[in-house]
Amino acid sequence: MRALKLGLSVVTLLGCLGTLAYVTDAGAQFVAAPMSEDLSATRPVPVTPPPSAVTPRLPVRPAPMLTPDPTADITLQIGGLSSVYKRASLQNLSQAFIKLTGVDLNDDVLIDDFAIINHCDIYTRYFKDEFSWRQAREAFRRVIQRELESYPENVYMLGSLTLGRYDFERKAFMLDEESKFVRTGAFAFSDRGFSCPGGVVKQLPLTYNFRLTNPITLDRFEVPEEKAFTITRIMEQEQNRDRKVYLSFFIRINDFTTQNEGGGAGLRATTRATLMSMRVYLDRQRKIQIYEYTGTN
């Protein structure tokens, strides 16, 4: 079992060997920014390559750039289709749930849940006054109706893992037993840190059990030898002795079904989804993409 720690959010992946922790900043998001980076401009590497080897430039694809803006999204072109991906969060998943399940927007409890999850400050300010809250509730209902089509169907999650040694025969960095993906396609998302004073969620899920339609099976990252040499030199230069690399999982949500109709923490949504891309980056800022998995590699 592999555990992903997304800041205050927890994702547990099943169907793989060993245990691997992914740790990210819950507030960080990404925005697409085409860029070209010449690694020949990096600091001199204190390693002398073999006489026959020439340190190559590492090809860099346009990649998302890290931004401190917590509301930023990523716009990516995958398979010839340009789509917006939002950071997986309780707020974004609640909006996707409302959009894709066709819930009854005339249900006051549902509107209250939406406010608790997405606008806790307004909820805590006005809910105690039933007259003020009646007006606020109608305003929320109109907002949902107006913005429903813009609610997300695509989300992304962040992670990391450790590269093993480079295999010269297979021309690939091998993944150790704890990092291999073996039909990895089930994970649970929940935000353990979520709370809204006085608010009790009754109808919207607080846990989302994802089931990928295309589970990941992967035991290596295939990389040309010259590119692999550059990667290892940069890792050594940056004192990345563990050979840690950074992942972004881009996921399309297909549909939801709910379980445990007790509500609140007991209400879970089974989320059927498709992995559109898993991208691997050399740096935490995710500027230098070194590999992409789409299920057809």
Short recap of the structure:
With 297 residues, the chain is of the alpha+beta class. The protein has helices spanning 90-101, 108-118, 120-126, 130-147, 225-237; strands spanning 2-6, 9-14, 21-24, 29-33, 63-67, 74-78, 81-87, 154-167, 172-175, 181-191, 207-218, 220-222, 244-259, 268-281, 289-293.
Commentary on this structure:
- This protein has 297 residues and is of the alpha+beta class.
- Helices cover 21% and strands 39% of the residues.
- The protein is built from five helices and 15 strands.
- It has helices at residues 90-101, 108-118, 120-126, 130-147, 225-237, and strands at residues 2-6, 9-14, 21-24, 29-33, 63-67, 74-78, 81-87, 154-167, 172-175, 181-191, 207-218, 220-222, 244-259, 268-281, 289-293.
- The strands form two sheets. Strands 1, 2, 3, 6, 7, 8, 9, 10, 11, 12, 13, 14 and 15 form a 13-stranded mixed β-sheet that branches. The protein has a two-stranded antiparallel sheet with strand order 4-5.
- Strand 14 (268-281) and strand 15 (289-293) form a beta hairpin.
- The protein is elongated and about 70 Å long.
Secondary structure: elements and pairs:
Layout: E1 2-6, E2 9-14, E3 21-24, E4 29-33, E5 63-67, E6 74-78, E7 81-87, H1 90-101, H2 108-118, H3 120-126, H4 130-147, E8 154-167, E9 172-175, E10 181-191, E11 207-218, E12 220-222, H5 225-237, E13 244-259, E14 268-281, E15 289-293
Parallel strand pairs: 1-3, 7-8, 11-14
Antiparallel strand pairs: 1-2, 2-10, 4-5, 6-7, 8-9, 8-13, 9-12, 10-11, 13-14, 14-15
